[in-house]
Amino acid sequence: MLIIFRKKTFLGVSLILILLFRIIYQSTWVTAAESKVGIFASYSFSVLLGFSMREEMERGRSIPSLGSCPASAIPKLSWSPTVGVDLPAWFSSVSIALQSDSDYDGGLLKMGTPMVCLRDGSLPLPDASDNAFKVASSFKNGSSAQITSIQNMEQCIPLERNMTIKLTNEQISPGVLYLGLFNRIGSMRTQSKMINRGPTFTYTSVITIEECISSANWGPYCNETLNPLSCSSAYTDPNMKPVDTIVVCGNALGRSCHRENESKMYVIDILEVSEQLSIFAKDIGISEVSSSNKTRNASEITLMCYARYDAMPLSTIYDFSGNISDTPLLIHAPKVGRWFISVIPVRLSDVKNESLKACYSMESQVHQCPEGKAGLNCTFGKYILQTYVHMNSDYVDYYYLPLDETMPSSTTDFSLDSLSRSSSVLETDPSWTYFIMNIPKGAAGKSIQVKLMSDQNIDYEIYSRYGGLASSQSWDYFYSNSTSNSDGATYYKLYNSSQVLVRFYILYAREGTWTFGLKNLTQTTSTSQSTTRMSISLDSCPSRCSNHGRCRSAIDSSGLTLFSYCQCDRNQGGFDCSVVLVTPKGHFWQSFSLIASNSAALLPAFWALYQRSLAEWFLFMASGTSSGLYHACDVGTYCVLDFRVLQFMDFWLSFMAVVSTFVYLTTISESSKRTLLTAVWILTALMASTGATRSSGWLGY
């Protein structure tokens, strides 16, 4: 009896060790791609929740709006529903308080450090380039003091256990602010894996938005009075060919007077794409309060003017500045939206006298070209692009074409040469052609694709800009040639660059107005017969996920924003699945090793057959065979049955093989063993059939 028990013990231990070897080896294989790039962790994305439920309070400087998110876990390799924080036009500040179990202590930043990323107007995408990691490296202890402006870029901050980010309307613009929590960033965040490994963390967040009681007050403390420049008249300039329209705007309250180094804030709204905004002061003088409000001329008075788009200007943070006591401040191609203007008298007199005030009449002029014209002296063509929807089983794309009743709705591109030749009033070289498109609300999770195609040579440069007219001096993204373009910018991705094809994406483009200026490098009198066509579209996923993944779409929790992302296959990664994580040769050997590892089941099966334990022999053989078929299907070799069926069989039979080994080692009666095995068979089958191996469980497939 002792000899039989020792044989059983040896058999049981051997079987358990072999099964553990299979499990460890197969689990290690699925992370081989991670070892390629030196990272052994998982990645995920979650967006903080916030809303604007106004809480009525007694009159004060502001009314707080409070939003909170209960304790939530960041799931591995998943993209959580996205919600943006809507900042009203009269907000003063937004405060984001975070508590998490992150282990970052403010030391050296690593690729595995969780981050919170912020972006104004569209979704953050930190692993589109290395810029987010470089920016995050400059922050210490979650401080927002170093955030000067996130109007035109993305900011990422390492996530700590307890941190608070506070941003004022001097740092960010009204509108939708998107916030994202990333549990590790990098190319492998979008890679499909069978088993997810790496740390997870939980977090809670509270978002507080403080709003000014009156829309006439602004600033971080709502102590700045806004003086709107109302536009009451417009006239045409007969000296311009073609004649342009000038909209005159002024302070409805008349002349303004204030002391030295005391700022006065003005605001003007630009309603459409314009050529120029002129800001100047008239009737400048000095008023001495002690002399019965007597006003006298001041030839050396200095009125410093600071202008900023969609946010409060400071003497240290502004878009444009100048002394408007001498010459107007000219802003070429101003962006559509609200402009804030601060005027500060700097030098009233050589003698210090606190009773002196600078007085002036504030005025501005908005220059607008006639319909269909834009650019230098309104001499070039401007075309409004209309949206056409193209749908198929996998994608919904929006193509933008010039308004033309003769153009069929199935067309996805248009002739650029014909529009370029007819757009210039004067035969100037080079000529420009402008296109204006609008991205509707809720489409911030899509990307703009721009494509030029020619049968000979592409003789155009492309300049794109958000909100205002694009030019070679003012642009957000541009393409001149294969060596001179915006390559390296966070949200710019160049895919094709040749003499006959240019194709690039603007990733997660902001909602609103976008303009494209195309500079024709050929002579207007050239007789070249080349044909160039252009295509502008709003795509779900860049480059169709490079044909190495599936494009997924989701709607945020508010139901107002649709965003798309790529779910890559096992060998690819990156936001567009263009990064090779496992080479074809490496994939072959890893797949072969994984499938061949199931042959380890032959050892316990042989030993069971030698001991005349036919039931155990059949179970070990079935377990090894089903596991091999499952992994062959999982790595894309061949699927004998449906993937879910094979996954169920692998889990069920492998678990039963372990249980049968333990039951075999027991000294209970044979009837008790059969009863116990029957109960375990039913229980494990029930567990597997109710989703024990589904992707939302412990498997990340």
From TrEMBL:
Protein name in the entry: EGF-like domain-containing protein
Please name the InterPro entries in this protein's record: EGF, NGX6/PGAP6/MYMK
Location (main, coarse): membrane
Q: Where found in the cell?
A: Cell membrane
Tell me one Pfam family matched here.
DUF3522
- How does the record classify its membrane topology? Multi-pass membrane protein
Domain EGF-like span(s) in chain numbering = 537-578
What cystine linkages occur within this chain?
Answer: C541-C551, C568-C577
Q: Any idea which UniProt keywords this protein has? A: Cell membrane, Disulfide bond, EGF-like domain, Membrane, Transmembrane, Transmembrane helix
Give yes or no: UniProt keyword DNA-binding.
no
Query: Which residue ranges does UniProt annotate as crossing the membrane?
Result: 651-668, 675-693
| GO CC, alphabetical | plasma membrane
> Which family does the record assign?
Belongs to the TMEM8 family.
From which source organism is this entry? Kalanchoe fedtschenkoi (Lavender scallops)
